[in-house]
Design goal:
single chain, 246 residues, alpha/beta, Rossmann fold, Dihydrodipicolinate Reductase, domain 2, 2 domains, 5-stranded parallel beta sheet, 4-stranded mixed beta sheet, 37% helix, globular, Gfo/Idh/MocA family oxidoreductase, nucleotide binding, GFO_IDH_MocA-like_dom, Gfo/Idh/MocA-like_OxRdtase_N, NAD(P)-bd_dom_sf
């Protein structure tokens, strides 16, 4: 396994490294852990990687690892604006990709990624990781067995409060509140997509229509920090999705 970013100041990279090692089937063998080559080298050394497999950029890493043929797949856990390009490069180089959500910044980019997957025959996985929990799988099986009957109404929530003040100042906050890095959505793209994914996964249904209210509760923010969504499913059921970081 290779990892792109997940280094100094990052949160989720460390979580993924722990999760990847739980069953002993995956080994981290190389990585580009920062856009700063020195920081990337320091992080790779802390993780026990060989110096010749610690890279200062994802482009350098993908090119070199493609030549060696020793890496199986790539994990991309960068801020949102650095999802699309490394994913395309990795797929074209013949690597399967595990990509943090959201997939990219636009529908056009998403369609290009989909075409690239089809053309290369590689696998692209998005990190909707909550579907792996036993407490999520159990209600899914109950619903699919019709233990509770026909699904007519769905309520799904993902609530946080870490952006409830306007003076929040951290590396994680800065890029999430910047449209150039986070993309066109804040809360919805960050945690609302998890709720959306669980609504479909647990019920076994597909959401066909949405009506969304995006709010910026804290004055001056350009992206949503509070979201309410009306849902309609392919079996006629209706639902409500709520996500908030305030």
């Amino acid at each position: 396994m290779d990892m792109i970013v997940g280094g100094p100041g990052a949160f989720i990279g460390g979580v993924y490294r722990i999760a990847a090692c739980l069953d002993g089937e995956i080994e981290l063998v190389c990585g580009a852990f920062s856009s700063d080559a020195r920081q990337s080298l320091e992080m790779g050394a802390k993780l026990g990687l060989s110096a010749d497999r610690i890279y200062g950029s994802y482009k350098e890493m993908i090119e070199h690892e493609h030549e060696t043929g020793e890496m199986d797949f790539v994990v991309i856990v960068t801020p949102n604006h650095v999802h699309y390009e490394p994913a395309i490069l990795a797929l074209l180089a013949g690597f399967d990709v595990i990509l943090d959500k959201p997939m990219c910044h636009s529908l056009e980019q998403a369609r290009h990624l989909s075409r690239t997957v089809d053309e290369t025959g590689r696998t692209l996985c998005l990190t909707h990781a909550y579907t792996g929990y036993p407490m999520v799988k159990q209600p899914r099986q109950m619903i699919l067995r019709f233990d509770i009957g026909l699904v007519r109404k769905v309520y799904v929530e993902y609530q946080q409060g870490w952006l409830s003040h306007d003076n929040v100042n951290s590396k994680q906050t800065q890029w999430r509140l910047d449209p150039k890095q986070s993309g066109p959505s804040g809360c919805l793209g960050d945690i609302g997509v998890h709720a959306f994914n669980l609504a479909e996964y647990v019920t076994g249904l597909q959401i066909t229509h949405v009506c969304t209210d995006l709010r910026s509760v804290i004055d001056g923010r350009q992206l949503d920090d509070d979201v309410s969504v009306l849902l309609r499913f392919n079996n006629g059921a209706s639902g409500v999705l709520m996500a908030s970081q305030v």
